[in-house]
Each structure stands twice: as C-alpha cells, then as structure tokens.
Amino acid sequence: LCVVFFFLGMEKVVVCPYKRPNALYRLICFPWAGGGTSQLAQWGKLFSSSVEVSSVRLPGRESRRKEPFAKDMATVVNEITSVLLKELQEKPFAFFGHSFGSYISFAVALHLKEKYGLEPFHLFLSGAHAPHSEAFLPIKTVSISDTKDEDVLKYIEILGGTPSELLQSEDVKEHLILTFREDLRVLQTLSFEKAERNIPFSCDITCFNGSEDKSHDVEAWHDLTSGDISFYELPGGHFYLLEPSNEIFLTKHITKCIENAGL
C-alpha cells in the first residue's frame, strides 16, 4: 500500500513523459509563476538517453487544479522533497529552474543539503536574482492583495510566455491570474539569510538570462557556492527559453555540463 501511495504522489507531483530507468542522471525542472509542466517536461525528448528529465507540478494547476494552492514555500519544499527523496538518493541529479522555479529549486536544494546532506551536482538557474540579494527585496514587499486583476494580467502579458489565444478564454484568464497571485504569495515566504562565512553549496551553478529581460542580480549567486559559476545571456525577453533556438542551446549546454561533471 505504501508503494502505491508513493507512486501516486510521484505521478501527481512529478511529471516525466520520457521515462529512462537506465539513465545515469536526473534533471528536475521547476516551472515559472503561473506555469505548469507542459514545456519543461517535454525537454525529455531533447536530451540523450543518459539523462531523465522530470518537471515538478505544484497544486492548483493541471491535474491538481482542484487542490488548494500551497500556502508557503516550506509546504512546497516539504511536498517535493518527500516525493523525490528516494529517487534523488539513487543517482546524481541536477536542478533547472526558471524565474519563480529558480527560487523553488534553490529552496529544495537547500533543504536537501541541510536535512539529508544531499546536493544537486549542478544548479541551472534562469531569470532570477540570488535570494539574499537586495534586488530580490521588491518582490518580497509588493502587496499582492492591493494589486488589481487587470494589472496582474498586464504584467503577465508584458512578461510573455502565455499564448495570446489562451488569454481569450475568461476561465483560463481568471485561473492564470489566480495562480500567478498564489505563486507570488508563496515566493514572498521564501526566507533566506546568508550567514557570515557560511557557503551553503559546493555544486557548480550556471545562470541564464534573456538579453531583453530586466537584469537580474546573478553575481550574488557567487556567495552561495564554493563550486564554479558561469553566466549566459541568450537573445530574448523573460521567456527567452521558449524560443526553439534558445531551447536547443540550453538543452545542449546542460547536457554538456552534466556529462562533463565526471561523476
């Protein structure tokens, strides 16, 4: 019975359309605010047979639409960790997160390190400030409840990443606004204070950003690992990663990093 519950939890929280039980490495992807698993889970077909790709699905969307949204980052982290822990103990794993997903991947990685002594061998972070940087503070202080729906929608449209035909449907539009608000609420509960002389990670970190996106304080990620850190700017805005040419660059580059990790 326990195995059945574990499997159901796994299928609910982690989406892996291209299962590769013999893969040497796992890449776990974390989507952006308001996002689901459709784009990043499809990366599985772009990677070689040595990498199995999964995408995390949060409550309140897709097949979990009827579930209540998570209340805070700790809830999100605990759920993901409890479902993935056994898998992550079996073989080396890396995380990829975009925007809101970068912060979740960071929080999950930190929890795994502090509680279980487990660490991704590489963190791939996209479109995000380092969580202890001053540039992250405005995100934490914006008042979600005071923001009108049309302003949230305008912001989503400016960011891009949502096909305009989807926004023609009132139901889809409403649910997207709600999901975006709830994800922002979760993000605001991320609390991380960088302690003096304490470097939480030893893994390599790669940061990606769109050239037309606002600049992110990626330099501050240097403080968080004793491993190597590299930065790449790719053409496009906040959702540069949805451009097929950038997607090819990302998946090739991530593959190279994974295969050169010498594990």
UniProtKB/TrEMBL annotation:
Look up the domain of life of the source.
Eukaryota
Provide the top EC class: hydrolase
Catalytic activity as recorded in UniProt: (9Z)-octadecenoyl-[ACP] + H2O = (9Z)-octadecenoate + holo-[ACP] + H(+)
Q: In its UniProt record, which GO terms are filed under biological process?
A: medium-chain fatty acid biosynthetic process
Q: What is its EC number?
A: 3.1.2.14
Q: Which GO terms describe its molecular function?
A: fatty acyl-[ACP] hydrolase activity
Q: Which organism does this sequence originate in?
A: Glareola pratincola (Collared pratincole)
Q: Which UniProt keywords apply?
A: Fatty acid biosynthesis, Fatty acid metabolism, Hydrolase, Lipid biosynthesis, Lipid metabolism
Q: What is this protein called?
A: S-acyl fatty acid synthase thioesterase, medium chain
The organism's lineage?
A: Eukaryota, Metazoa, Chordata, Craniata, Vertebrata
Give the protein family: Belongs to the thioesterase family.
Thioesterase domain sequence ranges: 26-247
